[in-house]
Design goal:
The chain folds into two domains: 338 residues, Homocysteine-binding-like domain (TIM Barrel), CATH 3.20.20; 276 residues, TIM Barrel (Alpha-Beta Barrel). The protein contains 23 helices and 24 strands. Strand 7, helix 12 and strand 8 form a beta-alpha-beta unit. The protein is elongated and about 90 Å long. It starts with a strand and ends in a 9-residue tail after the last helix. The structure holds (6S)-5,6,7,8-tetrahydrofolate. The site of (6S)-5,6,7,8-tetrahydrofolate has 16 residues, from helix 15 and strand 18.
Length: 627
């Protein structure tokens, strides 16, 4: 879907409905002009030829973050040079100031203090250069740490808590915004965002947040994440005001991915390239991109792609920033054509939630209740072989995987962790977490680097459990399947299904700030295979409710567990009925379906007789009985 949106629309129309963030002077300035970040901190500290004493002793040598205590004048000089060059925003010298990184120097306990001091120094410097027509801002730098949670180097909670401490130090030290930068692993970004959200909730305040990912020369993030997957993963987080990329390469190598960001991310776009890819000159690695060259790339990025925040990463000097500052005064960003199609993502790739033609196929076989093979692997704790089943479903055409490990007598939390930690890196497609247990769902979300879907919520036991899961959607940036079940049980009529959907939608959007596109309604698929009188008309009600939901809220999604419809029939009849039912539901607006992908047949492959019998069954044509 193409929507023509002027570049600053996202801010003007309120990126979120929180007044405080709209009062941010930084975001206001961004609607008026191109803003310029500073250049490299690390390389410009190195230029000063600091001694072991400057670092506070041999054991701390190389720990740039400690300089805010041991040699603050060195940090001030970097800030001053960039402010003199015209930078609107300076970044705190706190890239590695989480307890995770500082532990390598045995100073993990100084994390809060180092962040606070880094912020305070930058604040003082920025304030000294503050002018009414040129406000200066301080961005709190939050680096990726040295650990990759998707590879199991660190668990989510430990990482989140370390980022929380960094957030507290930076904000209490006086930063205007936070910059989660040089991101390598989207699970790391989620941990940082969970920390920041928690801090905002605890203190009832918020400041703008930038997320900036690093795309390596191979064209993906270090963990293999494509740019569209990173965009999809960030999309649900309304605390993120700006999205972009920095580091690893020069501007030339960034162009294609930057184009994707400008096209697919609704937020203002940020770019901070290195001064080229370092070249080995006389045994030293040198950054060789000149200020003029950087300026020319940036001019195009602004005027052709619509980038609105620029700066420099490794190897960029005050001279580079001076050029960019002058450029910013001369140009306006291009208007962007933003494609706002909602996506889900794995660690690696993104896929639209509405395929054209539909449906999005959700593999049903990684379900301990839905597959004997999967259940037996689970009982044997053959977790790696379960990955094999996931991969088989991908080969068979699944776009997404439903994962259910609930089995009586087993520890579902442990099984879910074992399975999701593997699927996250070893299955390439997005995941649907199929569980009714809040702890199981949360454990799974802490291991999913992409934007996942929770399966499912309903109102069977009232609103309490439902609201707990909706809160998880916000914290972990997930979409959710909502079943049309309420306190009276499973809705049978189309109207009742629609009414329950409406009730869930209003709770999700009004109380939790979810968007229509985060909601996937499942209007319940009962079996027609048993001949049970009560359910003879059920398929029509299910499909009619899909139509009503899609008509009322076109941005909401719909899904069905299609194979339920044919329980009790022989395998061939099941495949025919499932396929015909799926086709029929898609005509009414069904977006996705949980299926055995390889067993779904296109209608033309089903003989006419089979199609007719199946349709008669679906439409409850009584004459079918006598055929
Ligand atoms: N809605 C939502 N989630 C769901 C369902 C739904 N999750 C579970 C289920 N329904 C969808 N998944 C399946 C999985 C397998 C089968 C049916 C639905 C199935 N399995 C074969 C059987 O039981 O005969 C077993 C095949 C085997 O053992 O290999 O039919 O409706 N939101």
């Amino acid at each position: 879907m193409m929507v023509h949106v002027p570049v600053f629309f996202y801010l003007g129309a309120s990126a979120c409905n929180d007044n405080k963030i709209m009062q941010s002077l930084f975001l206001e300035e961004l609607t008026r002009r191109i803003l310029v970040f500073d250049g490299a901190t690390g390389t410009n500290l190195q230029e000063q030829n600091l001694t072991s004493d400057d670092f506070g002793g041999a054991e701390l040598e190389g720990c740039n973050e400690y300089l805010v205590l041991s040699k603050p004048t060195a940090v001030e000089k970097v800030h001053r040079d960039f402010l003199e060059a015209g930078a609107d925003i300076i970044e705190t010298n706190s890239f590695g100031s989480t307890s995770i990184v500082l532990a390598e120097y045995d100073i993990a306990d100084l994390a809060y203090k180092l962040n606070f001091e880094a912020a305070a120094i930058a604040r003082r410097m920025a304030d000294a250069y503050q002018k009414e027509h040129k406000p200066r801002f301080v961005a709190g730098s939050m680096g990726p740490t040295t650990k990759l949670p998707s590879l199991g180097h660190i668990d989510f909670d430990t990482m989140r808590d370390a980022y929380y401490e960094q957030t507290a130090g930076l904000i209490e030290g006086g930063v205007d915004l936070l910059c989660i930068e040089t991101c390598q692993d989207m699970l790391q970004v989620k941990a940082a965002l969970a920390a920041i959200q928690r801090y905002f909730d605890d203190k009832q305040q918020r400041i703008p947040v930038i997320v900036s990912v690093t795309i390596e020369t191979m064209g993906t993030m270090l963990m293999g994440t494509e740019i569209t997957a990173a965009i999809a993963t960030i999309d649900p987080y309304d605390i993120v005001s700006v999205f972009g990329m920095n580091c690893a390469t020069g501007p030339k190598e960034m162009e294609e991915n930057l184009r994707s960001i400008c096209r697919n991310s609704p937020r203002p776009v940020f770019v901070m390239p290195n001064a080229g890819i370092p070249e080995n000159i006389g045994g030293h690695s040198c950054y060789t991109l000149t200020p003029e060259q950087l300026e020319e790339y940036m001019r195009r990025f602004i005027t052709e792609l619509g980038v609105s925040i620029i700066g420099g990463c490794c190897g960029t000097t005050a001279e580079h920033i001076s050029r960019l500052s002058r450029l910013a005064g001369e140009v306006r960003p291009a208007e962007r054509d933003i494609d706002r199609s909602p996506m889900v993502s794995s660690l690696y790739t993104a896929i639209p939630m509405h395929l054209d033609p539909p449906p999005l196929l959700i593999g049903e076989r990684c379900n301990a209740n839905g597959s004997k093979q999967f259940r037996e692997l689970l009982l044997g704790e053959r977790y790696d072989d379960m990955v094999g089943m996931a991969r088989e479903q991908i080969r068979e055409g699944a776009h997404l995987l439903d994962v259910c490990v609930a089995y009586v007598g087993r520890d579902e939390r442990r099984d879910m962790r074992e399975v999701i930690s593997r699927f996250n890196t070893q299955a390439s497609i997005p995941l649907m977490i199929d569980s009714t247990e809040i702890e199981v769902i949360e454990d799974a979300l802490k291991l999913c680097a992409g934007k996942a879907i929770i399966n499912s919520i309903n109102l069977e036991d009232g609103e309490e459990r439902l609201t707990q899961v909706l809160a998880l959607c916000k914290t972990y940036g997930a979409a959710v399947v909502a079943l049309t079940i309420d306190e009276d049980g499973m809705a049978k009529t189309a109207q009742k299904k629609f009414d329950i959907a409406a009730r869930i939608r209003s709770i999700a959007t009004e109380q939790f700030g979810l968007r229509d596109e985060d909601l996937i309604f499942d209007t319940l698929t009962f079996t027609l295979g048993s001949g049970d009188e009560e359910y003879r008309r059920s398929a029509m009600d299910t499909v009619e409710a899909i139509r009503m939901i899609k008509t009322a809220w076109p941005r909401c999604f719909t899904s069905l567990g299609v194979s339920n419809v044919s329980f009790g029939l022989n395998p061939h009849a099941r495949h025919v009925l499932n396929s015909v039912f799926l086709h029929y539901a898609c005509e009414a607006g069904l977006d996705m379906a949980i299926v055995h992908a390889s067993k779904i047949m296109p209608l033309y492959k089903i003989d006419e007789k089979g199609r007719e019998i199946a349709m008669d069954l679906i439409k409850d044509k009584r004459q079918w009985k006598t055929v």
